[in-house]
Amino acid sequence: MGLSLTPARVVSSEMLDEHDAPETEMTRSLRDLRRFNSLAGGTRAYLALLSRLIPDRDARVAILDLGTGTSDLLEAVRRKWRNAMTIGLDRNTRHLAYGAAIGERGVMRVAADAFQLPLRDGAVDIVASSHFFHHFSADENRAIVSESLRVTRLGVAFTDTRRHYAPLVFVRLLGALGLVGPITKSDAPASVLQGYTLSEMRAFARSLGARHVDVFRLMPYRFGIVVRR
Protein backbone atom coordinates (compact mmCIF):
# COMPACT_ATOMS: atom_id res chain seq x y z
CA MET A 1 0.00 0.00 0.00
CA GLY A 2 1.43 3.38 -0.99
CA LEU A 3 1.90 6.30 1.34
CA SER A 4 -1.10 8.66 1.26
CA LEU A 5 -0.51 12.40 1.39
CA THR A 6 -4.15 13.02 2.23
CA PRO A 7 -5.33 12.76 5.84
CA ALA A 8 -8.87 11.63 6.61
CA ARG A 9 -11.46 14.39 6.76
CA VAL A 10 -12.24 15.35 10.36
CA VAL A 11 -15.23 17.57 11.12
CA SER A 12 -14.84 19.85 14.12
CA SER A 13 -15.83 23.28 15.39
CA GLU A 14 -13.48 26.25 15.13
CA MET A 15 -12.93 28.75 17.92
CA LEU A 16 -13.01 31.83 15.70
CA ASP A 17 -16.56 30.99 14.64
CA GLU A 18 -17.78 31.40 18.21
CA HIS A 19 -19.42 34.71 19.04
CA ASP A 20 -17.94 34.82 22.57
CA ALA A 21 -14.24 34.41 21.71
CA PRO A 22 -12.03 36.70 23.86
CA GLU A 23 -11.54 40.02 22.11
CA THR A 24 -7.73 40.04 22.08
CA GLU A 25 -7.53 36.46 20.83
CA MET A 26 -10.20 37.08 18.20
CA THR A 27 -8.47 40.15 16.78
CA ARG A 28 -5.10 38.37 16.79
CA SER A 29 -6.60 35.50 14.80
CA LEU A 30 -8.24 37.87 12.31
CA ARG A 31 -4.88 39.56 11.80
CA ASP A 32 -3.29 36.12 11.33
CA LEU A 33 -5.80 35.41 8.55
CA ARG A 34 -4.99 38.70 6.85
CA ARG A 35 -1.28 37.80 6.93
CA PHE A 36 -1.98 34.30 5.60
CA ASN A 37 -3.84 35.81 2.67
CA SER A 38 -1.15 38.38 1.98
CA LEU A 39 1.96 36.24 2.45
CA ALA A 40 0.83 32.65 1.82
CA GLY A 41 -0.99 33.10 -1.46
CA GLY A 42 -4.61 33.42 -0.38
CA THR A 43 -5.11 36.85 -1.94
CA ARG A 44 -3.36 35.83 -5.16
CA ALA A 45 -5.54 32.71 -5.44
CA TYR A 46 -8.73 34.69 -4.82
CA LEU A 47 -7.90 37.27 -7.49
CA ALA A 48 -6.91 34.55 -9.97
CA LEU A 49 -10.23 32.85 -9.32
CA LEU A 50 -12.24 36.01 -9.94
CA SER A 51 -10.25 36.74 -13.10
CA ARG A 52 -11.93 33.73 -14.70
CA LEU A 53 -15.23 35.61 -14.48
CA ILE A 54 -13.95 39.20 -14.78
CA PRO A 55 -11.25 39.44 -17.47
CA ASP A 56 -11.68 43.21 -17.93
CA ARG A 57 -9.94 45.32 -15.26
CA ASP A 58 -12.33 48.20 -15.98
CA ALA A 59 -15.45 46.07 -15.60
CA ARG A 60 -18.26 47.44 -13.47
CA VAL A 61 -19.13 44.42 -11.35
CA ALA A 62 -20.81 43.79 -8.02
CA ILE A 63 -19.14 41.09 -5.91
CA LEU A 64 -20.57 39.50 -2.76
CA ASP A 65 -18.00 37.76 -0.54
CA LEU A 66 -19.30 35.07 1.85
CA GLY A 67 -17.65 34.58 5.24
CA THR A 68 -15.81 37.81 4.60
CA GLY A 69 -14.19 38.26 8.04
CA THR A 70 -12.32 41.57 7.85
CA SER A 71 -12.91 41.84 4.06
CA ASP A 72 -9.20 42.11 3.26
CA LEU A 73 -9.77 40.13 0.05
CA LEU A 74 -12.39 42.62 -1.10
CA GLU A 75 -9.90 45.40 -0.44
CA ALA A 76 -7.56 43.62 -2.88
CA VAL A 77 -10.44 43.32 -5.37
CA ARG A 78 -10.98 47.07 -5.28
CA ARG A 79 -7.31 47.65 -6.00
CA LYS A 80 -7.44 45.39 -9.09
CA TRP A 81 -10.94 46.23 -10.38
CA ARG A 82 -11.33 49.90 -9.59
CA ASN A 83 -14.97 49.99 -10.69
CA ALA A 84 -16.06 47.04 -8.59
CA MET A 85 -18.78 47.29 -5.98
CA THR A 86 -17.89 45.01 -3.07
CA ILE A 87 -20.12 43.58 -0.36
CA GLY A 88 -18.80 41.48 2.52
CA LEU A 89 -21.20 39.12 4.28
CA ASP A 90 -20.59 37.38 7.58
CA ARG A 91 -22.74 36.07 10.43
CA ASN A 92 -20.28 37.33 13.04
CA THR A 93 -20.89 41.03 13.64
CA ARG A 94 -17.70 41.32 15.71
CA HIS A 95 -15.61 40.28 12.70
CA LEU A 96 -17.42 42.79 10.51
CA ALA A 97 -16.95 45.58 13.05
CA TYR A 98 -13.23 44.87 13.42
CA GLY A 99 -12.84 44.79 9.65
CA ALA A 100 -14.56 48.15 9.35
CA ALA A 101 -12.25 49.58 12.03
CA ILE A 102 -8.96 48.45 10.47
CA GLY A 103 -9.82 48.07 6.79
CA GLU A 104 -10.07 50.34 3.81
CA ARG A 105 -13.17 52.34 3.00
CA GLY A 106 -15.49 51.37 0.19
CA VAL A 107 -16.46 47.85 1.25
CA MET A 108 -20.08 47.42 2.32
CA ARG A 109 -20.54 44.96 5.17
CA VAL A 110 -23.68 42.92 5.86
CA ALA A 111 -24.48 40.61 8.77
CA ALA A 112 -26.47 37.69 7.32
CA ASP A 113 -26.60 33.95 6.68
CA ALA A 114 -25.15 32.44 3.48
CA PHE A 115 -28.09 30.01 3.33
CA GLN A 116 -30.58 32.89 3.11
CA LEU A 117 -28.99 35.80 1.30
CA PRO A 118 -30.84 39.11 1.87
CA LEU A 119 -30.74 39.98 -1.84
CA ARG A 120 -33.17 39.81 -4.72
CA ASP A 121 -32.61 37.49 -7.69
CA GLY A 122 -29.71 38.63 -9.89
CA ALA A 123 -28.71 41.41 -7.49
CA VAL A 124 -24.93 40.94 -7.90
CA ASP A 125 -22.63 39.74 -10.65
CA ILE A 126 -20.57 37.26 -8.62
CA VAL A 127 -20.77 35.49 -5.28
CA ALA A 128 -17.31 34.49 -4.07
CA SER A 129 -15.66 33.06 -0.99
CA SER A 130 -12.26 32.05 0.29
CA HIS A 131 -11.55 29.55 3.07
CA PHE A 132 -15.30 29.20 3.69
CA PHE A 133 -16.22 26.00 1.88
CA HIS A 134 -14.59 23.63 4.38
CA HIS A 135 -16.97 24.67 7.16
CA PHE A 136 -19.86 22.81 5.54
CA SER A 137 -20.90 19.35 4.40
CA ALA A 138 -21.43 18.59 0.72
CA ASP A 139 -25.21 18.94 1.14
CA GLU A 140 -24.81 22.29 2.88
CA ASN A 141 -22.43 23.52 0.19
CA ARG A 142 -24.91 22.53 -2.51
CA ALA A 143 -27.52 24.65 -0.75
CA ILE A 144 -25.08 27.58 -0.53
CA VAL A 145 -24.19 27.30 -4.21
CA SER A 146 -27.87 27.17 -5.16
CA GLU A 147 -28.70 30.23 -3.09
CA SER A 148 -25.63 32.04 -4.42
CA LEU A 149 -26.60 31.33 -8.03
CA ARG A 150 -30.04 32.78 -7.32
CA VAL A 151 -28.57 36.22 -6.62
CA THR A 152 -25.88 36.26 -9.34
CA ARG A 153 -25.79 37.33 -12.97
CA LEU A 154 -22.42 35.77 -13.90
CA GLY A 155 -21.70 32.96 -11.47
CA VAL A 156 -20.16 31.64 -8.27
CA ALA A 157 -16.43 31.40 -7.48
CA PHE A 158 -15.17 29.64 -4.34
CA THR A 159 -11.64 28.74 -3.24
CA ASP A 160 -10.29 26.92 -0.18
CA THR A 161 -7.30 24.94 1.05
CA ARG A 162 -6.97 21.39 -0.24
CA ARG A 163 -6.80 18.70 2.44
CA HIS A 164 -3.18 17.55 2.32
CA TYR A 165 -0.38 16.89 4.79
CA ALA A 166 1.79 19.72 3.42
CA PRO A 167 -0.44 22.62 4.56
CA LEU A 168 -1.25 20.70 7.74
CA VAL A 169 2.43 20.44 8.69
CA PHE A 170 2.95 24.10 7.74
CA VAL A 171 0.23 25.50 10.01
CA ARG A 172 1.20 23.20 12.87
CA LEU A 173 4.78 24.45 12.58
CA LEU A 174 3.59 28.06 12.74
CA GLY A 175 1.72 27.26 15.93
CA ALA A 176 4.66 25.40 17.48
CA LEU A 177 6.95 28.36 16.77
CA GLY A 178 4.52 30.81 18.34
CA LEU A 179 4.07 32.74 15.09
CA VAL A 180 0.27 32.78 15.33
CA GLY A 181 -2.23 33.39 18.10
CA PRO A 182 -3.88 30.68 20.21
CA ILE A 183 -7.09 30.58 18.17
CA THR A 184 -5.19 30.23 14.91
CA LYS A 185 -2.95 27.58 16.45
CA SER A 186 -6.07 25.50 17.09
CA ASP A 187 -8.23 26.49 14.12
CA ALA A 188 -5.71 26.33 11.27
CA PRO A 189 -5.04 22.56 11.54
CA ALA A 190 -8.77 21.98 12.06
CA SER A 191 -9.50 23.93 8.87
CA VAL A 192 -7.07 21.86 6.82
CA LEU A 193 -8.49 18.60 8.18
CA GLN A 194 -12.03 19.72 7.32
CA GLY A 195 -11.00 20.62 3.77
CA TYR A 196 -11.75 18.79 0.55
CA THR A 197 -9.50 17.12 -2.01
CA LEU A 198 -9.63 17.81 -5.74
CA SER A 199 -11.27 14.46 -6.41
CA GLU A 200 -13.93 15.20 -3.79
CA MET A 201 -14.53 18.61 -5.33
CA ARG A 202 -14.88 17.12 -8.81
CA ALA A 203 -17.49 14.70 -7.47
CA PHE A 204 -19.22 17.64 -5.79
CA ALA A 205 -19.21 19.58 -9.07
CA ARG A 206 -20.84 16.65 -10.88
CA SER A 207 -23.52 16.46 -8.19
CA LEU A 208 -24.56 20.05 -8.90
CA GLY A 209 -25.91 19.09 -12.31
CA ALA A 210 -24.74 22.47 -13.65
CA ARG A 211 -23.91 22.88 -17.33
CA HIS A 212 -20.90 25.14 -16.75
CA VAL A 213 -18.79 24.19 -13.74
CA ASP A 214 -15.00 23.96 -13.45
CA VAL A 215 -12.77 22.64 -10.66
CA PHE A 216 -9.05 23.35 -10.77
CA ARG A 217 -5.87 23.65 -8.73
CA LEU A 218 -4.74 26.97 -7.32
CA MET A 219 -1.38 27.55 -5.68
CA PRO A 220 -0.40 26.84 -3.01
CA TYR A 221 -2.44 23.74 -2.11
CA ARG A 222 -5.78 25.30 -2.91
CA PHE A 223 -8.67 24.48 -5.19
CA GLY A 224 -11.04 26.72 -7.11
CA ILE A 225 -14.57 25.99 -8.25
CA VAL A 226 -16.43 28.25 -10.67
CA VAL A 227 -20.09 27.71 -11.50
CA ARG A 228 -21.27 29.91 -14.35
CA ARG A 229 -24.82 31.00 -14.98
Keywords:
229 residues, alpha/beta, Rossmann fold, 7-stranded mixed beta sheet
Assign the CATH superfamily of the domain at 39-162 and 197-228: Vaccinia Virus protein VP39
* Residue windows where pLDDT falls under 50 for at least 5 positions: none
SSE string, helices as H and strands as E: HHEHEHEEHEHHHEE
> Helix content range of the residues, please?
40-55%
* Total strand segments: 7
* CATH architecture assignment name of the domain at 39-162 and 197-228: 3-Layer(aba) Sandwich
How many H/I helices? Answer: 8
Secondary structure category: alpha/beta
Mean residue pLDDT? 95
What Rg is obtained from the alpha carbons, in whole angstroms? 17 Å
The side-by-side strand order for the widest beta sheet comes to 3-2-1-4-5-7-6
Characterize the main sheet. Answer: 7 strands, mixed
Strand content is 15-25%
CATH-assigned fold name of the domain at 39-162 and 197-228: Rossmann fold
**Class of the domain at 39-162 and 197-228, according to the CATH hierarchy?**
Alpha Beta
Topology of helices and strands:
Elements: H1 23-39, H2 42-51, E1 62-66, H3 72-80, E2 85-90, H4 93-102, E3 107-111, E4 124-130, H5 138-151, E5 152-161, H6 165-176, H7 182-193, H8 198-208, E6 213-218, E7 222-228
Parallel strand pairs: 1-2, 1-4, 2-3, 4-5
Antiparallel strand pairs: 5-7, 6-7
